[in-house]
Model the fold of this input.
Amino acid sequence: MQFLFPTFLFALAALAIPIIIHLFYFRKFKKVYFTNVRFLREVKEETSARSKLRNLLVLLSRILALTGLIFAFAQPFIPQDAEVKAGNKAVSVFIDNSFSMSALSQDVPLVEKAKQRAREIVEAYAATDRFQILSNDFEGRHQRLVSKEDALALIEEIKISPSVRNLTEVVTRQKQALASGSEEVETAYLISDFQKNVTDLKNWPDTLPEINLVPLQSVQERNIAIDTAWFEAPVQMIGQTNTLIVRVRNYSNQAAENIRLAIKYDGQTKPAGTMSIPAGAVATDTVSLTVLRTGWHEAELSVTDYPVQFDDKYFFSFHVAEQVNVLVINEESANRYLDAAFAGIPYFKAVNMSVRNLEFSQFPNYQLIVLNETREISSGLAAELNRYARAGGNVLVFPSRNAGIAGYNSFLQGFGAASLQAYEDGVKNVGNINTSEFVFRDVFDNKSANLKLPSVKGSFRSERSGTGETLLAFRDGSAFLSKYQADQGHLYFCVAPLDETQSDLVRNGEIFIPLLYKTAISSARNLRIAYTISRAETLESDHKVEGNQIVYKLRGPSGEFIPEQRIVGSRVFITTANQIQQAGFYDLFLQSEAVINKFAFNFDRKESDLACYVPDELQTFVGDNIKVLEINEEAILTAKIEERSQGISLWRWFLVMALVFLGVEVLLLKFWKV
Done:
């Protein structure tokens, strides 16, 4: 047995008081006259013995009552498995309010069960202790320590949220809040269903603060979810069939048959087919979208699944430009083959410009810049082209036969490309085409057919030390056309001029036309068609308005609000924090009637996998530095917490002991007559 406040035991010295009173208590006797004193000694002896016995019992009752009272103030306890710590306490309670906590347990949502457990935890501590109540929303008001009364009020306000956090993030937030206080004892509780895909506390090494897990179990449900979707081509074209790839996942341990996939597009919902997905597997399907207009488009994929439905819809948006703008930079006159090629594709608009009259500020307005046999690349032009490509543009270079090697190599060095050596005359034939790369992928129906590949009468030699990918190669293995990635854009470099006296590429339509078309619409930028709620997403859009007082707004199912925004050059970067809580489409605008961009947001699919740890499995997973509190559904957690934080408390029993012996004293004095 140990004592929470052992200094109170010094009060045991007060036990001498009733003993002293007893020793120095002299009772005054009355004189009684007897006519016959024959029995006087016998009566005197009997009365004296009974009086001594009663007085000793009264003394013992007083001593035991006082001892019980002193021990009650010292608060004795029997230590349990956890070390009992004295002093004021700071307690953090995390309540998992993600979508998975809407599952039922005994006809009650798990989140309500979690709130009940949180109340029981708070009630187990003293009114002087401080508390943090935390949820997946990570709200500002949940980042500080509050009183017991305020903590109970915050618990009542928690509701289901689309936010989901890894538990390491949660514990980090708890540690920050607990460290902000001056309390001697810090304790953290996490109440959750402990889904396997967010429980990342494996063999947790930290022992401060004390961490306790309170697992809740629900009825396991089957779940089918649309995992993600993306377009096969990076740019969607008007008047053409654009292929959308959809990935659907079966999270249950049973096969799913005849899952219906549908798409809502341009106000109409159309079936997209049925799918059969094995247990725990992923199925991929394709949906064809025919775009009939330019501008922004909204679309919604859906499957029919019950009872878990938050992940049955997938919203996405995409933009179809009115045209693809191409800038051709010429040394002298324009190349008639380039003009004819772009004129033959109505979707393309090519602009010719002399290398001596360039407007660098207009570069971001073009999807492709073609350098047509320029003799020199100045340092300024090289820097602008590098900046343009890294921002998502594409650069296609055909050098002049008389190109300045030093200037070109300086330009290529900025892209990590292979440097050029002297121009060599001599016939060389292209012998290999890379049909697995985007530019020539899906261009030829029969890849094994004998294609007529280009040949040259002269070309630059290039080193093979570059980091690029070869698209067209000579028969000797050296590169004819190479591709280099530069952040979000590309550089395409040909070692031969476009002049038909040096190369017959311009007369090779099955290679030349796809080359121009695909390089213009290629992109290394991850063109997002959808974003995820609760993730730290950064939205990006064009910024073409001048002025200091510019405020972008977002409007959607969550209402209209002003997000955090940062303007850098011709781009605006948007972050939404926790402002978006509903899945759907959100419009970015400056003026309400003019939509600049559309963003689609979906709920996080982390919650789709309903697999959870059972208590024994959870304890093995997290290790010995974290305690898993496994309690019965009907049990009250308050008593369990008190036992863990204070041991088996005995002060109540000693208080009862004091009252009992005070009662015994009263009874002895009242009913035992001497």
Notes: The chain has a mean pLDDT of 86. The CA atoms of residues 427 and 457 lie 4 Å apart.
